[in-house]
Amino acid sequence: MRHSILVSDIGELPTSIQAPVSGQGTFDPWRTRAGALGLFLTLGTLGLGVLAPWLAPADAAAISGPALSPPSLAHPMGTDAIGRDLLSGVLLGGRTSLAVATAVVSLALVIGLSIGLLSGFFGGFTDHVLMRVTELFQVLPRFFFAVVAVAVLGPGLDRIVLVLALTSWPVLARVVRAETKSLRHRDFVRAAEACGATPARIIVSELLPNVLPGALVMASLLAGQILLIEASLGFIGLADPSVVSWGTLAGQAQELLRVAWWMPLFPGLAISGASLGFNLFGDALSSHLGGR
Amino acid sequence: MRGLREFVALRRRRTLRTVSARYLAARLLQIVPSCAAVVVVAFLLIQLAPGDPVLALAGEHGDPAYYAFMRQRFGLDQPLPRQLATYCIRVASLDFGVSYVQGRPAAEMIAERVPATLVLTTTALLLSLLVAIPLGILAGRRPHGAADFAVSALTVAFQSTPSFLLAHLAILGLALGLGLFPVQGMTTAGSPGSGLKHFVDIAYHLILPALVLASQEVAVLARLTRTGLVSELDSDHVRTARAKGLVERVVLWRHAMPQVLLSLVTVIGARAGHLLAGAAVVEIVFGWPGLGRLMLTGLQTRDTPVLLGVFFVISLAVIFANLLTDLLYAALDPRVRYR
User: Fold this and answer.
1) CA B187 from chain center: how many Å?
2) What DSSP line would sit under A256-289, residue for residue?
3) To probe the interface with A, which of B110, B117, B135, B156 has the most A CB atoms within 10 Å?
4) Which residues in chain B have Cβ-Cβ distances shorter than 8 Å to A34?
5) Rounded to an integer, what distance in angstroms lies between the CA atom of residue B163 and that of residue B122?
């Protein structure tokens, strides 16, 4: 099993990706144990998230059994303080958490790709300005920023998504910029320039496809992180109480820890599984692309 | 370990030559926009907050003249840029306002909590280094071996586990189950022991929260050590060292590890925010009286000055951690030449 640095922690891919164009073989995560597990978990989580409304045995917000009953046949994951079915909560809550992660990652990808491509392609003054801006966003402590934002603006998924996206794109932008810079003077870019292609055309049709795989590595690892952060925010009571998510479930479990061990355990395991999937998948993709 | 000491001594001698005064000045100057960005973000958040502060203070259905007076008194009639400037100056002088709940300066309340958080985070960081470096070496010396697989599995699992779950499991298993550790707090209630006894008491309460907080750092740092070592052991200079017939211990510590440790320095600095966020969650679960705990109280009592104060202090810590890392890196790595 080839293993790579968790690029998310350093902010750049371990080694420059070597021409992730064609001729490197197709990416097949099933080949390695870790990659296969990652893909399985990721697809499994996403699948369960999509199918949750049909799979959930009960309405996650409705009382469907005795309060605080331990896992049983009727309630495989037990029930919470007022008798809501925890399995339904985990299934439907996962949907919310995954939606948050997807929204954050998409937003961060759009901003990070744009800034990174522009910065890397034009270089010079543009690069300087954009990178200074990126640094400014990078120093904002993500978790605490989210806490303050929700505390001041009131709970809601929209602001959580916005704050997490605003603090997540810099890492992506830096990876994309580094990649773009290394590709900028390759022959295929020069050839396009010689043919009279406009900068916009070069960026979109020559550079974007080549930096995308690296950005996807980051996106996958980011998704894993966002799931953990959303859960942590919910845990300290900042999730939107009107929507069930893994975060709200974790928050409810906090007070009942000693009474109901199943309440922190099952949502926690779901979060771990999903996050593990994204992490392993990102790593598999990263080592395929030639990270160390 | 002797190799490590020599390495440090060697680098220390080069310090003064590599970090130029110009670089130092330029890097110090970079702090200003970073700090400004943090304050502006906080200011914008307050502006975006729903509700009119004057209505909240003076009540609804009040006298318009009184509203105007209040607006003037709190400077709310000033144009926004001027309000922002005033706010920046206040924050820069560490005046975070007065706590709504306690009526004391928020800065004072925060200052009281900083030591507890510092103790927790530094202990966790040291613990994680002590565990992560040997684990990383164990895994990296024989890549794709059994030890490597075990370490990889362990670290990726820790990395994907939310810290509150880990904290809960630790409490359920080690504190409530086996009764090895106290469940909550920083000291035993009702025993204001002194001197050594007090110290031991705190250390005893510190073990579990520090372990939980360290586990996530261990995951990252061990992986980093492992990956760095694998690529170093594969490099030409290590091959040369081995070809010279050097002992494996010397090859490892004098030739391979220095570069790996250097990358650890950068990552530890870059992860200051993660560490503090993790500490906040751990403090909440274990009732550790640090900044995270203060933040939770501030949240529950809607004490905005305290919350914003915590945000400022944490941001400042992150900015300074980054600064320190850059300077340390410049000092340790002779290849870094700054303009």
Assistant:
1) 23
2) TTTT-THHHHHHHHHHHHHHHHHHHHHHHHHHHT
3) B156
4) 152, 156
5) 17
A107 touches B at CB < 8 Å: no
Position A119, amino acid? S
**ipTM for the whole complex:** 0.84
| Residues A256-286 pLDDT 10s | 777 788 888 888 899 999 999 999 998 888 8
| Helices and strands (DSSP H and E) totals, chain A | 11, 0
3-state secondary structure of B67: helix
Percent of chain A having pLDDT more than 70? 90
Helix axes A157-184, A124-138, angle to 10 degrees: 150
State the DSSP string of B91-155.
Answer: HHTT---B-TTT-SBHHHHHHHHHHHHHHHHHHHHHHHHHHHHHHHHHHHHSTTSHHHHHHHHHH
Give me the mean pLDDT over the B281-307 stretch: 89
Considering only CB atoms, A141 lies closest to which of B33, B48, B318, namely: B318
**Separation CA B226–CA B233 (nearest Å):** 10
pTM: 0.85
**CB interface of A with B, residues 32-61, below 8 Å:** 34
Q: Nearest-CA residue of chain B relative to A152?
A: B49
Mean pLDDT of B71-79: 76
Looking at chain A from residue 253 to 292, which residues have their Cβ under 8 Å from any Cβ of chain B?
Answer: 253-254, 257-258, 261, 264-265, 268-269, 271-273, 275-276, 279-280, 283, 292
Are A26 and A51 spatial neighbours (Cβ–Cβ below 8 Å)?
no
CA atoms of A152 and B135, how far apart (whole Å): 43
**CB-based contacts of A13, cutoff 8 Å, min separation 6:** A7, A175, A178, A179, A214, A217, A286, A289, A291
**Does pLDDT of B285 surpass 60?**
yes
